[in-house]
Design a protein that fits this description.
Number of strands of chain A: 8
Distance between the termini of chain B: 39 Å
Largest sheet of chain A: 6 strands, mixed
Helix content of chain A: 25-40%
Number of helices of chain B: 17
Order of helices and strands of chain A: EHEEHEHHHHEHEHEEHH
Radius of gyration of chain B: 27 Å
Oligomer: heterodimer
Strand order of the largest sheet of chain A: 4-5-6-1-7-8
Structural class of chain B: mainly alpha
């Protein structure tokens, strides 16, 4: 993946995600984690190589086909990316835009069934009582939970989470991660999640892949992760105390 | 990443020759401008004085053949400069197109040849401007008495035009309102293809951007006064011609303001909506529109404000509104009545300013 301007963000990254697993992507800032996740739902288009979602090539898909594939892979962002001036409910309803009729959705109109489902999704993350609030009135942790409800509303098979808790208060991280874990365990959704907090990685991931300078340098299970691997991923100078501690 | 690489990175992707041509073109333009300004000043100071002399010399300078020679010479100089820039220092065109070269980056402008060139260029522009605009400090400081009659008249407004003035003032405000209101929906639609960040994708969208920008810049460059003359001959003298003139100009101005707001949005929500599998229109509706509504409203109110002020001038040529009765009184030197009308306009503008500030405060 080469960005306009010549920055090569990813090269020779090849791996497979198994259905139902919680795969965590590790790596330093700038190692290509976000680019990797964004290649998967074509928020950026890879300059070379292919991404297959359920055996369908999204790198070659266009129009309706591309939108259908995007619908099956919901994304959760570090900055939540809610529509700040819309209500919580409208934000969740936006998750169904891939299915909704065009005319109605342009006037923010959705069917009663969709309303009902949106409320159920909000209830799942414990935010049903805030359905009428404006999104920018919520705290960071609450906004991320609404974003999870929006992802759920999309009825995806795959969740792409790009540093979902990196801009949250440390005390709230587990509460948000547990909601993502629940999607994985209870709904059977496959989760691809980039994280940089190693405590979270070892607690939630079922498998890891690690990027360094845009290349895949390691993959394995959380229990195989040792100080040696840590240095391989984060470089010789990296402080290992968080792992030792 | 070391800073030295940044300029190189920007260059990859488009051919180096294009960058070279751009550099030489910018330099040639700068040199030929400086050259002609020097000539102009030499001629102006070589004995001829006053407007007639200036106009004559200007004609000599702008003689086409002479201009071609100057351009060719500048092109040669610019090419030479860029061939030997290592020996004599980078040219200003090089700075604009490629950024400062490593060797000169941390030097103050006094130690760069381009710095001196720019300094001399600014001086030349100032002196040439002084001559061209016929600046006359002496008249400005000594001949105030002639104007004092006018100012005295303005300060003693007469009540004879008060009624007529008020009626036409109402017309002015409505004229500005209609022009703004009709401009909103069109500018709103045109703003999207005019925003750089939304038109990077396909060839069609990039073309749409270029076409829209060019067209809107052209429309905006034509003064509302000229539009008024066009529409007066189209629909006849009266406020409707004024509405049309201000409308066309407002569409172009609002499109530009709106599209700049679209370029400033946070792309996060757009990404999030795109990721749900939404179509382009839905992405615009959910990812873009909610973010730009408050600034759009505030710019629109500001535009109404501007249109009220502009419609005065439009009235001068027959586009309706209060300017229509202001013009003959200015021509006849009825300064008392002019004073009344100016006060009415000033009061309205002042009121609208307060009003629009209040409303914008609420929205944002």
């Amino acid at each position: 993946m080469v960005y306009p301007g010549g920055v090569r963000a990813l090269a020779d990254v090849s791996f497979e995600v198994r259905e139902g697993e919680f795969l965590t992507v590790l790596g330093l800032s700038g190692s290509g984690k976000s680019t990797l996740l964004r290649c998967i739902n074509r928020l950026v288009t890879a300059t070379e190589g292919r991404v297959l979602i359920f055996d369908e090539d999204i790198t070659a898909a266009e129009g309706v086909r591309l939108r259908a594939l995007r619908r099956s892979a919901a994304m959760i962002f570090q900055q939540f990316n809610l529509v700040r001036r819309h209500t919580v409910l409208t934000n969740v309803l936006a998750g169904s835009l891939g299915r909704a009729g065009l005319a109605g959705s342009l006037f923010l109109r959705f069917t009663p069934a969709e309303h009902e489902r949106a409320m159920a999704c909000l209830a799942r993350v414990g935010m049903a009582d805030r359905a009428g609030s404006r999104a920018d009135a919520l705290s960071g942790g609450q906004q991320q939970r609404v974003a999870i409800a929006r992802a759920l509303m999309q009825q995806p098979q795959l969740i792409l989470a790009d540093e979902p808790v990196a801009s949250l208060d440390p005390a709230l991280r587990h509460s948000v991660m547990r909601h993502i874990e629940a999607l994985n365990r209870e709904e059977g959704l496959t989760v691809l999640c980039s994280l940089h907090d190693l405590d979270l990685v070892t607690r939630y991931a079922t498998r890891l892949v690690a990027l360094r300078d845009g290349r895949l340098v390691w993959s394995g299970e959380p229990r195989e992760f040792d100080p040696e691997t840590y240095r391989e991923i984060y470089g010789e100078d990296a402080e290992t105390s968080s792992l030792a501690g | 990443m070391p800073r030295g690489n940044e300029t190189d990175l920007r260059l990859t992707g488009w051919p180096k020759n294009v960058a070279r041509l751009k550099t030489v073109a910018v330099d040639a333009a700068l040199i030929v401008t400086a050259w002609l300004m020097v000539e102009f000043l030499v001629l102006a100071f070589s004995g001829r004085r006053g407007p007639t002399g200036l106009i004559l010399t200007a004609e000599q300078i702008l003689d086409l053949l002479h201009y071609a020679w100057a351009a060719a010479g500048s092109l040669v100089l610019a090419t030479l400069w860029n061939l030997f820039y290592r020996a004599i220092g980078a040219s200003p065109g090089r700075l604009i197109v490629r950024g400062a070269p490593e060797a000169e980056r941390d030097r103050p402008w006094t130690q760069r040849i381009s710095g001196w060139f720019v300094a001399v260029f600014i001086e030349l522009t100032f002196f040439t401007g002084w001559m061209v605009t016929e600046l006359d400090v002496v008249s400005f400081l000594t001949k105030f008495s002639k104007a004092s009659d006018i100012i005295r008249g303005l300060l003693q407004p007469s009540s004879s035009v008060l009624h007529e003035g008020l009626v036409l003032l109402v017309q002015t405000v409505f004229l500005a309102f209609m022009a703004t209101a009709f401009a909103i929906p069109i500018a709103f639609v045109l703003a999207f293809p005019s925003a750089r960040n939304l038109t990077r994708g396909s060839f069609i969208s990039r073309t749409a951007y270029t076409v829209m920008r060019t067209l809107m810049n052209f429309v905006r460059a034509v003064e509302p006064l000229v539009w008024a003359l066009i529409f007066i001959s189209w629909v006849g003298i009266g406020p409707f011609a004024g509405v049309l003139a201000l409308w066309v100009h407002s569409v172009a101005a609002l499109t530009k303001l709106y599209s700049e707001q679209i370029e400033n949005i946070d792309t996060g929500p757009m990404d999030a909506i795109t990721a749900t599998g939404a179509s382009t229109l839905q992405v615009l509706r959910y990812g873009v529109v909610p973010q730009v509504i408050p600034p759009f409203l505030s710019f629109t109110i500001y535009r109404w404000d501007i249109n009220v002020r502009m419609s005065t001038i439009i009235g001068f040529v027959g586009g309706g509104g209060i300017g229509y009765i202001l013009k003959p009184r200015v021509d006849l030197g009825e300064w008392g009545e002019v004073g009344t009308l100016v006060l009415l306009i000033a009061g309205t503008v002042w009121l609208m300013d307060i009003l629009s500030a209040r409303i914008r405060e609420r929205i944002v």
